Amino acid sequence: MNWKRNLMALSLAGSLLASPVMAPVALAADQAVETTATLYEGVANKGAELKIRQIGRYNSGVMDEDGGTTEIVAYNEDLKVAYVINGKKQTLSRLPLGELKDGINLEMEAQSDIQVATLIEDKAQGFVYGDMTSVAYSSKKGLIAVALQDKDYSKPGYVAFFTDKEGKLVYQNMVKVGVQPDMVTFNAEGSLALTADEGEPRKGYGDKIVDPKGTISLVNTETMEVNTLDFTDYDEAEARAGLVKDGVVLKKKTNPSVDLEPEYITVSGNKAYVSLQEANAIAVVDLDQGKIEKIFSGGLVDHGEVPVDIDKSDKTYAPKKYEGLYGISMADGIASVELDGEVYLLLANEGDGREWGDEEDGSEHSNEKKGKKSPSGNITTEDKVTYFDSSDYEGLPEGEYDFLFGGRSFTILNSNGTRVYNSGDDFEELTNQYYPDYFNTSNDNVEREDRSGKKGPEPETVVVGTVGQKTYAFITLERISGVMVYDITDPSEAHFVNYINSRDFSADIKDDVSPEGLAFVAAEDSPTERALLLAAMEVSGTVAIYEMEGPEAPAPQEPEEPQEPGTTPAPEKPSFPWIPTGPILPTGTEEEPVEKPEEPQEETPALTAHEAIMTGFPDGSFRPNDDVSRAQFATLLTRMGLGSGAGSVPADVQGHWAQEAIAAIFHKGLMSGYPGGGFNPDGALTRGQAATILARLIQGEEAPANFTDTQGHWANGYIGAAVAGGLLQGYPDGSFRPDEALTRAEALTILARWQERSTRPQDLAGVDEAELITYPDVPKDHWAYWTILDATNPHLEGEGGLWQLAQED
After folding, report:
1. CA 330, 333, 339: angle at the middle one, nearest 5?
2. Tens digits of residue pLDDT in 239-284
3. Cα distances (Å, whole numbers) of residue 694 to 595, 598, 750, 754, 757
4. Contact at 8 Å (CB) between 117 and 90?
5. Number of helical H runs and strand E runs in the chain
6. Rounded to an integer, what distance in angstroms lies between the CA atom of residue 468 and that of residue 529?
7. Is there a contact between 506 and 19 (Cβ–Cβ < 8 Å)?
8. Which among 476, 497, 493 has a CA at the least distance from the CA of 420?
9. Are 87 and 133 in contact (CB under 8 A)?
10. Which of 8, 202, 568, 791 is the most exposed place for a label (fewest CB within 10 A)?
């Protein structure tokens, strides 16, 4: 299916990494972010099962390096409209998306802005606007809900309700909820609106200082009655001790009723699951009974097993394992999904510190401890690291341990709190792979490794959606920006699929920076008839609109026997020894492949005897322009002298027709699985991946590649090595196209270059050309004709070095 695109500015792999880095600039809070006409793509689009591309953007005209602009977005599937809040502008905006069906609309306009702050202050006596934090929509009730905090941090907040009538937002009513409502959502029926009332002690701790209770408010949307639940039942000594024993992190000598601070809510059936971020916990609410049922821990990440880069002094990605160091997950966003009858919870493990109060009045409090040496003294770094100061907290392992804020990952739990999956160090590894020059930058600067010592990329929000036959998790990265995509169809085998980042790194804040909230739009509810993802950016003040294309039907079954159409050697030909000539044992651990030549290659250096390494299809065609898959390329390598193998392989390779070939290449370090797990054997091999394999084959030294589209690309050094080795080349326009898929003809060409073999017209002297295997779609004037002829016809070396076709017995 063809993708609509802006022909002026489409940027492959979502990258503007060739742009120069600019010095940080002070930004005005009411300044509009600078945007470009670039429509970004997912970095793995060429080989991914789910392709994702930007097709639009809304710019609110207000950015702020401290955030708080377009934080949250909700979608009305009935009217094809998005609702966006902007805490700085104090507005609720209506964003019509129906026009997207007519094509790209990069800069979209909002309709019917409402100045919510003024409206609510007029209607709520004594309320003074402090912030607008969340918006949600219920299709069952046709209601839009907006969460509002009072300027006085200790006073209750409100939820205001609106409807959308004739293209205008119309106020309906409002209700008082708990202190500092930070998130609002609806249950599936729309009968309840739920708020997570954070209740932070923003003036610190002290005898005469108010620490508000954290609560969860349930609003009956028919009667507008409010049931606000608190945690006072856990203040009793035994109940509190039970929380600590279960790994809930609590401030010493502090009651859970004030220390637990609800952050985010997801609803599944008659249960609500609420993240208590600072306490590293999840509360379960029985909506039928209207009570808090239980609380369990969000878990830890063991950095003795999961590597992490905490030292930014070297300005490079250098992950290490540290015994006794743990990341406290501290989930912000939380989502739920039911798969095969079981409910799963997905946590975005951001981490959050507590810095409250004032030094002058003695209320100052911080649980952050910064230094080059860890609190235990077991870890020493060249630059400061922010550790969790556990001395005033309970619920963490006791002993000589150190703790970091956040897990730099996302986690899947079952509904009882048992961990099913954790993404480990994927986010740091992947962002470094695709954006090495901007690894762990922050959302207000492009300084490399700025955030390595403190929470890394900061996973912020997670939502779940189904595209085609598969279920995906979408996780935002607050700091470097962008959205990670994972296939969670089988939660225990979740794996990375794609990543899109529509930030322009040529300036500190440009295009779409710091995604805070997401809204998934199913294909059947989308104006484009494809699934959409709406990403609200709290720093740039924009909303990015991404469109997705995924598998629409189950993947076809592989043949029962280990053979792949177009790559199996001709069975009727006798086998005989043949002579590989290149080095075969490099080192490395990536998964990358191939390149696309544009013109026939120059004269080949040597004639080599060999069997056929590739065949055509049953219909007699060769299909030179078809993509070559990762499994097929691994098979070609084994047929060119790297042998077959055995041993452990990723789960999606087990039982695959090419398992032995992949095992051989996998264990030689030429190709590897994806960071999130899996090998994706049937995915297309890209030119950048091919360059990586070739560079390893020739043991080439990494070198910068001077193409217009490779600067900043994860494979740039490998591309430079492969080009220097004479195995790959770019295009006449100066590009390399590292994320384009390699074709069958290109695969044969670069491998022939590697082994310095091919066929020339003069080599066929004395050969009856009627006996040659040829293909109607590869005529003699095709640029790869002689390479394909050589690869698909088994031959010996005859007198004078001429061809001698292998004869049947």
Report:
1. 110
2. 999 999 999 999 999 999 999 999 999 999 999 999 999 999 999 9
3. 10, 19, 9, 8, 16
4. yes
5. 10, 42
6. 12
7. yes
8. 493
9. yes
10. 8
Q: Token pair of 526, please?
A: 């989308």
Query: Which helix (H) or strand (E) element contains residue 694?
Result: helix 687-697
Cβ 356 vs Cβ 423: under 8 Å: no
Query: Quick one: which of 398, 406, 387 has its CA closest to 299?
Result: 406
User: What is the spatial distance between Cα 646 and Cα 666, in angstroms, rounded to a whole number?
Assistant: 10
Torsion, CA 121, CA 126, CA 132, CA 134, rounded to 10: -110
Residues 6+ away with beta carbon under 8 Å from 207: none
Is pTM, for the whole model, over 0.85? no
Q: For position 328, what pLDDT does the model report?
A: 98
Query: Across the beta sheet with 342-348, what order do the strands follow?
Result: 334-339, 342-348, 410-414, 419-422
Rounded Cα distance between 327 and 349, Å, is 9
How far apart are alpha carbons 563 and 479 in whole angstroms? Answer: 46
Q: Are 257 and 213 in contact (CB under 8 A)?
A: yes
| Separation of alpha carbons 548 and 534, rounded Å | 11
Query: Is pLDDT above 70 for 675?
Result: no
Query: Mind listing the pLDDT tens digit for each residue in 287-323?
Result: 999 999 999 999 999 999 999 999 999 999 999 999 9
C-alpha–C-alpha distance, residues 686 and 791, integer Å:
21
Closest CA to 513 of 502, 498, 529: 502
- Half-sphere exposure at residue 770, Cβ-oriented, CA atoms within 13 angstroms: 0
Report the DSSP beta bridge partners of residue 41: 53
Query: Which residue type is seen at 276?
Result: L
CA separation for the pair 293, 720 (Å, rounded): 59
Q: What DSSP character marks residue 626?
A: S
Amino acid at 379: I
Tell me which long-range contacts 702-706 makes (C-beta under 8 A, separation of at least 24).
Answer: 705/736
Kind plus residue range of the DSSP H or E element containing 661? helix 659-667
State both tokens at 524: 């059947």
How far is the C-alpha of 225 from the C-alpha of 124, rounded, in Å? Answer: 16
Measured over the CA atoms of residue 418, residue 334, residue 530 and residue 140, the dihedral's sign is positive
Residues 6+ apart with CB under 8 A from 165: none
Structural contact between residues 5 and 551, judged by C-beta atoms closer than 8 angstroms = no
* Chain mean position to CA 504: 17
Lowest mean pLDDT among 306-320, 345-359, 470-484, 793-807: 793-807
DSSP letters spanning 479-498: TT--EEEEE-SSGGG-EEEE
CA-based nearest residue to 534, from 467, 483, 469, 466 = 483
Report the 10 Å Cβ neighbour count for 535: 29
CA angle 529, 535, 538 (to 5 degrees): 160
